[in-house]
Amino acid sequence: MALRSSILVFLLLVSVLMKAQQQPSIIPKPVDLKMGNGYFTIDGNTAIQYKKSQKDLKATADFFASYIKNISGFSLKSNKAVAKKVEFVIEKDIQEEGYQLNVSPTAIVIKASSPKGIFYGIQSILQTLPAIRTNAALEVPVMQVNDYPRFKWRGMHLDVSRHFFGPEMIKEYIDLMASYKINVFHWHLVDDQGWRIEIKKYPKLTEIGAWRVDNINLNWRERPQAKEGEKPTYGGFYTQDQIKEIVKYAADRNITIVPEIEMPGHVASAIASYPQLSCTQQPQLPLTGGNYTNMSSNYCAGNEEVFSFLQDVLSEVLILFPSTYIHLGGDEVDKAPWKKCPRCQARMKAEGLKDEDELQSYFMKRMEKFIISNNRKMIGWDEILEGGLAPEAAVMSWRGEAGGIEAAKMKHNVVMTPGSPCYFDHYQAGPEGEPFAIGGFNTVKKVYDYEPIPKELNAEDEKYVLGAQGNVWTEFITTTEHLEYMVLPRMAALAEVIWSPKENKNWDNFNERLQYHFKGYGQKGLRYSPGNFTVNIKPSSQNGQLLINLYSEALNGEIRYTTDGTEPTLQSEKYEQPIAIKSSLVLKASTVVDGQIKGVQAAKQNFVMHKAIGSSVKYTNPVSEYYLADGPNSLTDGVRGGNATGKYWHGFSGNDMIATVDLGETKPIKNISLGFLQNYGSWIFLPQSVKFEVSTDGTVFTEIKTINNPIDINQKTVLYDFSAAFTQQKVRYIRVTAKNNLCPPGHSGAGKSGWLFVDEIIAD
């Protein structure tokens, strides 16, 4: 009996030690965390303590006490003499926003240089506790944490113009941000489809501009513009009192709200309210969707009333929002109306401006002067670089990182938010079985792998990168549940990118911690994406041999695949090493977790064999770093690019594409083709012409054929192969030259270089 009791005591001790050694699933991962043995238990005998002289800690103490009461019923008193305490201590020598957390069996002590750090220490504690009301003990594991953020700007954005979300949803969004130590809420309040902020001097902005005809039965991009006389069916706005309440709510959670008042474009809602602000001054209604035909969506840059109006609007905005930065938009301005407007042209002449880009720069610089005169700073999308950057403006880089790199080298502050991977309106899984999205594909892992400091910046310039931000545009996001699904768990992944040290990041470890958060989301009734189970099929080539690599993001997932076009089962081949492809085939692959096939359907890829498969490709002009596809040999990987501007396309901007393919040996060839994509809205156009040449030595090339583009450049989406058939020759080298096109008249980028998207060179 004594021996049995000793064994039971030993097993219990081992169990306790194992439990104590397990690190909590804190996201973002702290800089340094050391575990101890045992727990601090929060109960009715626990009190919050801080110096009474530090009155600014009261809001933080109240936040913590309210959270504990909601999940346990315990009412924690402040500054009462009890056996167990949660103590907040201000020590000035601790890094800004950082904290030191010490949990022992008898006390929790959080030290920081300000209430911000105390609040972040509290968030780490809360992530060890139940997510909802429970009768279980509130046990915080014994541990020591030293933690601080990597970046100052840790942001999330929300567009409430395309679809309106009420004050309670905004507070939920803020709570999610706070739980992950995100500190900037970029609130996109103004756009073509709705003006969402009350401006008392201009009541029509919300009486008219906040309401639109909403054809919910049609795709956003296909909704016809409303006609005069049609009654608005959708809308909403925030009163100034509601905004004040939300700003305070955010401030109590150490979140700064940066409002965006869009200008000089994307303002059809303002022009519908006050038509005299546009170049045409014609009456119109707010836009109903993505159809911009014959609509005014710009302020008139030659009209003085516009600047008076905007200064009045911003004067009210500045009172509501105490943020250092005010976002003035500046993106996607259709400058065609300015070219036709006598007042805009007169402004250009009077100010000595050479083109409409400089007119936009004049507009933004003038508004920046007003912002600076009110002791604030301007931030805008990277288009504000066009025509010259305002003297003190910060840049939010969304069209890739190029704008941010340029601005940082000019010693301007930058927030990195490139569409890939920081746009959370893009698909994160599937897309089969997923809620409809605007396009793109940004998985949780892709977000987690992001590095906000571009390699192009030196140590001095990288100091101007304030941080990064996730953006949520809501053309296709209409409900609270859909919004939650699109940000969870990508918000958590981005939070770790912008808080934790780069060297501390580890995808597998993050994925393990994320499972605990999934349970919390479910308990709270939040809708979230369980992850991307779609297998990533990635071709590569070595010495002329085509190899297929398969990847899955799923935790503890394995991959089963077939090469005969049938659906994978649990008995299908298990992926363990790259698959050699020697003939045309259809590969399908599925992720298996815990003995179950996950995902709606298997990933599928057709591989078409031809004589250039696996061949090396050299480009005279470099591929854009934002559209590298799967590497330099993507043109010969046997995979055709599709309608989406996704991973299989190589992109070129401003330069011709000149590609030389080495077949490795001379081969009999009688047909060569190269595929291109046209996507009018994305500035992607078929080339002006394509020239095919061949060679046996790589030095002397013979032209086979030059083909002029036969397709209308105004067609919206086109996949087209330029092909050259000829008398069979022995060929080792193939050179293809595609001349880049300009955006056509009537396009928002008219006269500027478009993009070339190319994929696959086929030789037979």
From TrEMBL:
Highest taxon, organism lineage: Bacteria
Q: Name one Pfam family in it.
A: Glyco_hydro_20
What keywords appear on the UniProt entry? Glycosidase, Hydrolase, Signal
Q: Where is the Beta-hexosaminidase bacterial type N-terminal domain?
A: 23-148
SUPFAM superfamilies per UniProt:
(Trans)glycosidases (SSF51445), beta-N-acetylhexosaminidase-like domain (SSF55545), Galactose-binding domain-like (SSF49785)
* Coiled-coil ranges (or none): none
User: Which major enzyme category is it?
Assistant: hydrolase
**Gene3D superfamilies, per database record:** Chitobiase/beta-hexosaminidase domain 2-like, Galactose-binding domain-like, Glycosidases
The name this protein carries in UniProt is: beta-N-acetylhexosaminidase
The source organism is Flavobacterium gawalongense
Organism phylogeny:
Bacteria, Pseudomonadati, Bacteroidota, Flavobacteriia, Flavobacteriales
